[in-house]
Amino acid sequence: MPDAKRTNSLIIYALIIFVLGFLCGTGFTVWKTGSSDDATPVSTAGLKTTHPAALSELVKIAASEPTNASVWLQLGNLYFDVNSPDKAIDAYTHAITLGRSDANILTDLGVMYHRSGQPEKAIESFDKAIRLNPQHKSSRFNKGIVQFYDLHQPREAVKTWEAIFLFDPEATVHNGTPLKNLIDRAKADIAEAEQKQNAQ
């Protein structure tokens, strides 16, 4: 029995290594949606950068304007960019509570939950994004990433990615690599891993 468990673990690790290699080769692991594109800009120089002074200034603005959803959204985006998931989650949640909620924001929130080690909350956020916009590619793609890496559900991840083809048969990742390539290679790797497991 321990051998079977160890074999299953090895299969999962092999699949993760495979997809990690593919994703590193294509230069991404998650898609950032750019949820600030539709935000009302805050008139503070340098807020589009990740410079500490810009971040510090935006924190002050958020403290003085706690009901300004656009400020909280931009703060969430900056925390996303400097990889501070817990602070980004707090800022995005403030923005959503104040009425700023769309598929992009929910997807970025999901990515932050993923980075903070909360995969179930990440999936919940991606699912909300998909309900708001069924043709939102990045929410579906990132949901597949969490299913694959965090939840060790490679078949479910493939299904999630394949759903993108229902509205975008020629879907690509951000650098132009066909999504179909990732799916085909993942399927082949899953089949090979299962074949090896069955042969033991």
Structure notes:
- This protein has helices at 2-26, 52-64, 69-81, 85-97, 103-115, 119-132, 137-149, 154-162, 179-199.
- The chain is mostly helical and 200 residues long.
- The chain has a single domain, classed as Serine Threonine Protein Phosphatase 5, Tetratricopeptide repeat, CATH 1.25.40.
- The protein is elongated, with a radius of gyration of 19 Å.
- Residues 1-29 and 36-48 have low confidence and may be disordered.
Compact description:
The chain is mainly alpha-helical. It has helices at about 1-25, 50-65, 70-80, 85-95, 105-115, 120-130, 135-150, 155-160, 180-200.
| CATH superfamily heading | Tetratricopeptide repeat domain
Architecture, according to CATH? Alpha Horseshoe
DSSP helix count? 9
Main sheet attributes: strand count, strand direction, barrel closure: none
Radius of gyration: 19 Å
Residues in β-strands, percent: under 5%
The shape is elongated
Mean pLDDT: 81
Structural category is: mainly alpha
CATH class category: Mainly Alpha
How many E-type strands?
0
Distance between the termini: 12 Å
Return the string of H and E elements.
Answer: HHHHHHHHH
Low-pLDDT parts are 1-29, 36-48
CATH topology (fold) name: Serine Threonine Protein Phosphatase 5, Tetratricopeptide repeat
Overall helicity: 55-70%
Number of domains: 1
